[in-house]
Amino acid sequence: MFGFRDIEIVREIVRAGGFRAAAQRSGLAQSAISTRIAALEKRLGIVLFDRVGRQVRLSSCGRRFLEEADRLIQTRDRIIQELTRKGGLNGTVRIGVAETIVHTFLTTMLNLLRVGHETVRFELSVDTSEQLSRKLVEDEIDVGILLRESLPKGAVSTPLQPIELGWYASSAIPLPPEPLTIAELAGHPVVTFSKGTTPFEQIERLLSQADGAPPVLHGSASLSTVMHLVADGFGIGVVPTRMVEAADPLGLGERIRRLPTRPEAHIQNLQFVAAYFHERNHKAGEVITAAAVEADQIDLKKRS
Q: I want to staple 295 with a disulfide (CB 3.0 to 4.6 A). Which of 105, 165, 261, 276 is the partner?
C-alpha cells in the first residue's frame, strides 16, 4: 500500500510547509512530489492534504496517517540499530536447556545475559537432552545445555559442574535409618527421569541386580512432576540434589527427605555441557557458555 519513502515525503511536505518547499529541500521536482502524493492518496482511498489556495495542510486522515507512520519509522530505526549493533548479541537467540537447569541456574544465567544485551530476545526450549541434541543438529536452537552423553558429533562443548543425584522419599513414609541396599530400594516403586535417558537406564541397570520381581520404574520428562509424586508418597525417587535444595518454591522442601544408601546404590553424577556448532553460532555460543559457567558456579556456591 505504501513504503517508507512515501512516509518520508509526507513528513518533508509537513516540515517544509508545502509541496514547492519540500521539492527544493529534497532535490526533487515539484511535479514528482505532487504525482507521488496523488498516487498515494488514490491507493489509500483518502485525502492526506487539504489544499487551500497555495497552502496545504494535513487533513484529519493525514494527521492519523503520519502519527502511525512515525511509529513505523521509529520501529524501523530501532530494528536497524539493534541488528547492526557492534559486539555482543543481537536479535533473537534460541537457548535449549534440560529441566534440571531450569531448577538450578537458568534464572541466574539469563540475568547475567541481560546485562549488556537488554534488547536481545531469548527464546527458551525446555526438553530432554536427547531432543536438545536433535534440535542443535537441525538448527532449531542456537545453544543447548544438555547431558554430555547426548552431545551431537561436531558440536563445541564446555563442561559444567557435575550435578549429584540422590535417592529421596516422602517424609511420611516410614523407612529404616540404616543405609538402604539395592534390594530394599527395588522393593518400592521408583519415579525418576523419563525412559531412554541416561539416568533412567543407569537406575534400571542398578535395580535389575536385586533378586525377586523386576522393579517398578516410572519415568517422567518433568522433574517437577517427579518431585510431587515423591512428596505425595507415590514412590521413592532419584532426582538432582541441587534441585531438591531449591525445592521451596515448589512447596516441597519439607515434604521429602534424602535416603541414606549403601555405596553400591550410588547413582553417577549428571555431567552437563553447554554446546553449539561453531560454524553456525559461535558468537552466541561463546557468550551464553560464559554466562552458563558463571551462573553454574554461583548456584553451586549458594547451595554449598
A: 105
CA distances from 228 to 7, 15, 53, 237 (A): 58, 65, 78, 10
| C-beta separation of 106 from 122 below 8 A | no
CA 29 to chain centre: 52
236-257: b (≥16 Cβ within 10 Å) or e: bbbbbebbbebbeeeebeebbb
Topology match between the domains 92-161+271-303 and 165-265: yes
DSSP type of residue 65: H
By three-state DSSP, how is residue 104 classified? coil
CA gap 266, 269 in Å, rounded: 9
DSSP 271: -
Q: Which CATH architecture has domain 165-265?
A: 3-Layer(aba) Sandwich (3.40)
The answer to whether residue 111 scores a pLDDT higher than 90 is: yes
CATH number of 92-161+271-303: 3.40.190.10
- Give the pLDDT band (50/70/90) at residue 3: confident
Among the listed residues 298, 227, 272, the one whose alpha carbon sits nearest the alpha carbon of residue 96: 272
The residue extents of the domains of the chain are: 4-83, 92-161+271-303, 165-265
* pLDDT band at 82; cut points 50, 70, 90: low
Rounded to whole angstroms, what are the CA distances from 244 to 103, 112, 263, 265?
Answer: 9, 23, 21, 19
Cell of 162: 557435575
Per CATH, which fold does 4-83 belong to? Answer: Arc Repressor Mutant, subunit A (1.10.10)
The answer to whether the beta carbons of residues 15 and 57 sit under 8 Å apart is: no
